Amino acid sequence: MYKSIEEINSKIAKGTAIVLTAGEMTDLVAEQGPAKAAELVDVVTTGTFGPMCSSGLLINTGHSSPRINFKEATLNGVPAYCGIAAVDIFLGATAQSDTPSYGGAHVIEDLVSGRNVYLDAAGHSTDCYPRRQLSSSINIATLTSAELTNFRNSYQNYNVAVNGSGREIQTYLGVLQPNLKNAGFSGSGEFSPLINDPYFRTIGTGTKIFLGGGEGWITGPGTQHCSNPKRGPNGVPIEGAGTISVRGDLKGMNPRFLRGVWIKGYGVSLSVGVGIPIPILNEDMARFTGVADKDILAPVVDYSSDYPEQNGRILGHVSYRDLYSGEIEVQGRKVKSFSLSNRKQGEKVASELKNWIERKSFFLTSPAETLKAV
């Protein structure tokens, strides 16, 4: 049995497509098997929501009178990059102001929430752009364009961080207590977008996605994309593996799915909601999307000694079922686990995307080029 994306889109247009969230598909495959699930289901929606540091905002402020060519600029005191053209600015999510707990991610949240942001810019005077200074209040309505432009989002899998030393350490996976007292992780398990298509058979450049509460697009593999990871059951990677770069119009997004965060001892990051619809083209895709938390294994790494070393030891692997239970076992010891990502919010992403498809307001796209996987 094989279905095409065109056939699935035709069913969406007619209102006859069967759409399940990743959690619902896991239950169905467990009950009836992948062959039957492939017959019944057309689309599975996925979702994740957590800190994604390699994110940012490309904005065009529109021209002032007289005009200025930005050479330096801050937004609410957060430095932005101006080496593009005239009034184009790129604001990195992890850029920080003099207030350590406020940075680029919070400016992005302020803008998408409709709040005013203070722009302070400087240029050098030329015949085309005579103005030297500009101080102005801007908001999302006054911007000519505002594109969320993220270079590495939605890791397919990632480390579980522990601390085997005798002192507390502060990491991007949270504050780790000494002597293996806790373990930090970030991921959405069976709802994780890239886990549900582990070989990227339907995901690639041009795939339309849920991004930050609005529509977005995959623009290619993300930085640090790994195309040939170590794999476990059903092809699921058991290490960091794939990533995606994405882009979307901030003016269509929602602050419920785009929030600035501050991680103690690390800095600022942006929590992003990402959801990818997976077309169920055949039995293989049904089996992949039927993956369960118990079958997704993540590597445990001691961040006090084996990170950031490139070839650090892996202390073992644990399942997302155990991670979400609040306790895992590491080297024979019970260790409390906590998540930086928000699983419930990731499930909301999947549910929202499902609603869009059922309302006929979101259709699937065939990628121009799928992401590489071995």
Key features of this structure:
374 residues, nine-stranded antiparallel beta sheet, alpha+beta, 2 domains
Structural class: alpha+beta
Mean pLDDT across all residues, rounded? 96
Q: What portion of residues belong to β-strands? A: 25-35%
Question: How many helices does DSSP assign?
Answer: 6
How many strands, which pairing sense, and closed or not: the largest β-sheet? Answer: 9 strands, antiparallel
Binned, the helix content reads: 10-25%
Poorly predicted ranges: none
Shape: globular
Distance between the amino and carboxyl termini: 24 Å
Number of domains: 2
Radius of gyration: 22 Å
Notes on the protein architecture:
- By secondary structure, the protein is of the alpha+beta class.
- It has two domains: 5-52 and 150-361, no CATH class; 62-143, no CATH class.
- Helices cover 18% and strands 33% of the residues.
- Helix 2 packs antiparallel against helix 4.
- The protein starts with a helix and ends with a strand.
Summarize the structure.
By secondary structure, this protein is α+β, with helices and mostly antiparallel strands. It is built from six helices and 26 strands.
